[in-house]
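Title: Prediction job returns without error message
Component: structure pipeline
Severity: low
Priority: P3
Assignee: unassigned

Description:
Job completed but the reporter wants confirmation the result is attached to the right record. Sequence as submitted:
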Amino acid sequence: MTLTQGSWMMEDMMDVGMEAGIFLAYAAGIALIFFFGKMLVIPARFMLKLLLNGAAGGALLVILNFFGGAIGITVPVNLITAFAAGALGLPGIAALVVYFFFW
């Protein structure tokens, strides 16, 4: 009778150990999903910001070409100039104007 009770208690303790292991495995899995999800969101925000700034830079170059065409200031609108204007803002557009006007 003592042996049966002892083995029952031993099995119960092993179940608790296995349940704790399963809990820790799930916790580690959730932590990894959170960590890698966070790592993927940050570059996505950066790429979205770069894309929006590039589109705004391209729009500003089109406006510059529309109004600057009357006085002979034109800057070609392509992927590189749009992203330079978007990433650098107004100083980037000024640099592009100087580059293409005097070159």
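Comment from assignee: result matches the submitted record. The first helix runs from residue 2 to 68.
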